[in-house]
Amino acid sequence: MTYQSAQALRTALETRLLARSAETGVSLDRLRRRVMFERVIARFQTAEPGQWVLKGGMALEVRLHDNARLTKDVDLGLRDAVDSASDLHERLVEILTIDLDHDYFVLTVGAPERLRDDSGGYPTWRAKVGARLADKPFGRVQLDVSPRAHELHATDRLAIPNSLAFAGVPAVEVEAVDIHRHAAEKFHGMLRDFGERENSRVRDLVDLVILLEHGLVVPERTATAVRTVWLERDSTEPPDELPPLPESWPDRYRRLAASHDMDFPPYSSAVAHVTQLWLHMFPSS
């Protein structure tokens, strides 16, 4: 049905989210954030189809729903260059403020901040996106934009959940990074050398284990993607063996596992699973 006011839609949506949370045990915060993600992505796909590609933890959540690690970021690859923070901000404002499908959501976006360049010298831009519904705050997400057309050749089309289907809002699809490319980027993030600063990306280990547990990676295709990522970002081949991980990671892993309502394997098992995949991809001669 179509709702005649933003308040009527919000009331109906909140009722459904509360029922869904009680039924599944998924936190209300996660369900609300998922709704906001859907509305953000719908605007990107409508305003600029073919330009934006979903990456990161949210791409896993689209594939695996409640079986993915909780993430509060929306990572998007962009097939265009970004000349300046002001140009990107203007573009994001234009995209996110369109009135879409009579969903009553009002989105705002702050000025993007340029983050540290990756090992290949390519920047990522971060902006805060807020949502209001019926003149009241609904949620916030962090948007990371990575202008890297050369990394976005292999993609999949995925249907995203549609929390507003009951209100007659149409479903949308999102272009997401290929799963093997995704796994390769997780490996690179997990093994990246940050110089004097310790690598803290234990979440990449968690995501790789989740991919393995759900049978989403084919070793041969992942090996090809790993070689491509290492060549793009480090101009070298990946290591023959998986290097030792930082000494702080067992504790970081346990804390991350404790903050999620999921059954993570013990740290030693997680490392063993990922090491076995690496050995399968790059067997010693």
UniProtKB/TrEMBL annotation:
InterPro entries in alphabetical order: AbiEii
GO molecular function annotations of the record: transferase activity
Key words of the record: Transferase
Source species, domain of life: Bacteria
Name of the molecule in the record: Nucleotidyltransferase AbiEii toxin of type IV toxin-antitoxin system
Protein's organism: Umezawaea tangerina
Taxonomic classification: Bacteria, Bacillati, Actinomycetota, Actinomycetes, Pseudonocardiales
